Amino acid sequence: MSLTRDQQSWEHFGREDPLWAVATEEGRRHGGWDEEAFFAGGRREVDAVFGFLEQAGIAVRPGDALDFGCGAGRLSRALAGRFGRVVGADLSQPMLDVAARLNADRPALTFTRVTSPAGLDAHRGGHDFVLSLIVLQHVTDRAVVRGYLRALASALRPGGVAVVQLPSAVAARIHWHPARVLGRHAPRLLLRGPERYRPYAMSLTALPEAEARAALEHDGARVEHVVDDNRAGSALIASRAYVVVRAP
Ligand SMILES: C[S@@+](CC[C@H](N)C(=O)[O-])C[C@H]1O[C@@H](n2cnc3c(N)ncnc32)[C@H](O)[C@@H]1O
Fold first, then answer.
1. What local confidence, expressed as pLDDT, does residue 183 receive?
2. Pairing mode, if any, of strands 64-68 and 127-132?
3. Residues of the domain holding 157
């Protein structure tokens, strides 16, 4: 089990085109995002999450929040308007550097590097709210994904709430697309070759709903709602948002 290739890929994306790598909209490649539009997208996402929680009657304390897989801080910045303190955690130092630069005007926000599920031990029981959107789908190894799900549940304080999204199934024609197969199986040697020939990949991983639930229901946390969503960006990818509450 290793995160080396994921880490190399996301360091590359963070150096080359961070905002596009976070929000892969048509026409926004190569610096095509303006910051205002980028962060407005993050506010819409966070407002939608809290709209759902409000409708479902789930109250969230406005204390400490964790944005896991924060990228350039698109969602962290929106969370900073709702919580006293927000930590954005990510695997990619170049992404974190961009996040810190773009959010230097938000003192409630800090960014930190976490390179494994065990890296979240420092957050155990520390957060009233945990958010992770469009992150775990990019973690190649499913055992590692399960480890993160358990660690995110454990990061909640008693009475804390998490919203965690990941795909539950990927259609065969996407899973077996030649570019994806190459991304998964390219020889390690290529990773040491010239930068522009390296097989960087945004991997696409799914975990069946029952497995995701079992991993999230950890340390006194319960999955209260499972919502179909379209965050994985294709009708060929079934995506789920899990709403998790830790017993008070
Ligand atoms: C598509 S971006 C989404 C960023 C943010 N969640 C958002 O919606 O704006 C995916 C992010 O997940 C991060 N990531 C990928 N694998 C990770 C891991 N194992 N641990 C923490 N972050 C990871 C990447 O570095 C990248 O910043």
1. 63
2. parallel
3. 4-246
* Residues 6 or more apart in contact with residue 18 via CB below 8 angstroms: 71, 72, 94, 95, 98
Q: Among 1, 38, 86, 90, which is best to mutate for testing ligand 1, by the most ligand atoms less than 8 A from CB?
A: 90
Q: What spacing in Å lies between the alpha carbon of 219 and ligand 1's midpoint?
A: 24
In contact, 11 and 71? CB cutoff 8 Å:
no
Distance 7 CA to ligand 1 centre (A): 10
Question: Model pTM?
Answer: 0.93
**Average pLDDT over every residue of 102-119:** 97
Judge whether 169 and 238 are in contact, CB under 8 Å. Answer: yes
Estimate the share of the chain in helix, then strand, then coil, as percent rounded to the nearest 5.
45, 25, 35
Which domain CATH number covers 183?
A: 3.40.50.150
Number of domains in the chain: 1
For residue 42, the CA-to-ligand 1 centroid distance in Å is 14
- In the β-sheet with 85-90, what is the strand arrangement from edge to edge? 109-113, 85-90, 64-68, 127-132, 156-170, 237-246, 221-229
Mean pLDDT of the residues in the chain: 90
One-letter identity of residue 211: E
